[in-house]
Amino acid sequence: MAYSGKYTVKLPEKYRGDPSKVVYRSLWEKYCFMWCDKNTSVKFWSSEEVVIPYLFEGDKKWHRYFMDLKITFENGKTILVEVKPEVQTRPPVAPPKKTKRYLEESFTFIKNQNKWKAAEKYANRRGWEFVIWTEKELEKFGIMPKSVKKLRPLKKLKK
Predict the structure, then answer these.
(1) Would you give the DSSP letter of residue 22?
(2) Does domain 5-140 have CATH number 3.40.1350?
(3) Which of 29, 48, 82, 135 is flagged as catalytic?
(4) How many CB atoms lie within 10 A of CB 144?
(5) Is 37 an active-site residue?
(6) Is 158 designated active site?
(7) Of 58, 59, 90, 159, which sits 20 to 30 A from 145 (CA to CA)?
(8) Four-point Cα dihedral 43, 71, 142, 2, nearest 10
(9) Digitized pLDDT (tens) for each residue of the chain, 159 residues in all
(10) Which pTM was predicted?
(11) Catalytic site residue 149?
(12) β-pairing, 61-66 with 51-56?
């Protein structure tokens, strides 16, 4: 998910915010933007327009969490969406010896938990819902194409 770029909003009347400044930080986010643009049940949407303060347990300081998406549907329901790989929604598995990578993943997991707890409260106070969309939800909702399994290498032909 290392793809990023500027997204051109197709229906600016549906976008809440400045449609000339929409940036996707992963290909999955881009797929979500495209889905919001063309989905007739989406009344309004925005990206990184909702900013939520949260207290990070790691440094005991307040930070700002920019929501990936805010979507309001035609039926009046509003959701705040975080787009993340499923592996990042679970605590990292501790290796026999604590590595630098494990410590960084643990730190990130705690930070995400702090963000998501704040987002949940923020959404609930407004009568909205906070959801995390992983690759499973994106495939299930038809937002992104189903994953394709890697092909096995070809066997050498016998002479």
Answers:
(1) -
(2) yes
(3) 29
(4) 18
(5) no
(6) no
(7) 90
(8) 130
(9) 458 999 999 999 999 999 999 999 999 999 999 999 999 999 999 999 999 999 999 999 999 999 999 999 999 999 999 999 999 999 998 888 889 989 899 999 999 999 999 999 999 999 999 999 999 999 999 998 776 556 667 677 776
(10) 0.86
(11) no
(12) antiparallel
